[in-house]
Specification:
- The chain is of the alpha/beta class.
- It has a single domain (about 1-80, about 135-205), classed as Rossmann fold, CATH 3.40.50.300.
- Helix content is about 30%, strand content about 25%.
- The protein has seven helices and ten strands.
- It has helices spanning about 35-40, 65-70, 90-95, 100-105, 120-135, 150-165, 180-185; strands spanning about 1-10, 15-20, 25-30, 50-55, 55-60, 70-75, 140-145, 170-175, 190, 200-205.
- The strands form two sheets. A six-stranded mixed beta sheet has the order 6-7-8-3-9-10, sandwiched between helices.
- β7 (about 140-145), α6 and β8 (about 170-175) form a beta-alpha-beta unit.
- It is globular.
- About 35% of the residues are buried.
Length: about 210
Amino acid sequence: MLRVENLRLPPLPSLSFEVADGECLSVEGTSGSGKTRLLRALADLDPVSGLVFLDGAERGETPAPQWRRLVRYLAAEPGWWTETPRGTFSAGAIESPRLERQLANVGLTPDHLDRDIGRLSTGERQRLAFVRAVLDEPKVLLLDEPTAALDSESAALVEEQIQFQLHAGRIVLIATHDAGLSQRLSHARLLLPKPRDASAQPTGHAA
């Protein structure tokens, strides 16, 4: 269970919600409403006031590296810090017997790991980052527009893998403008107001 209590992301009102194991919360709102800021705050990447609990353990009482292994943020534009994707995967990930299968699940091959980052398409980079994010099985996935840069076939493959994560009992939060994706995956929605609106409107299980 992921539980958020009185999280403050000015100018948004205080946010409180829960997401159970195996459930997906869709975080929705206009551009600039704070979707990305919320996901980054939950991953402890940006300072924020309020409490965030995972299975009863509070974020502030958990060492940051350990929290980020459990609560994984995947940016809409993932970061790359080596010439090829291989260098951004941990040694354990590269040696994992699941790696080749996970790449195949999103329409990629091991060869993609050794291609120059600049020669990969935006969609290929996004799918590689998705594999990198899920391979070590974090408890919570915070996905920022996970299919926005993908063609319909690739998007369907990634969506299927998100469904798999849910079936495995993981908690997923998706920031998206895609109403269809939200409808198919989410058990509840968190509607962030426009910056000048008075209050957020969580619905479903997130209320």
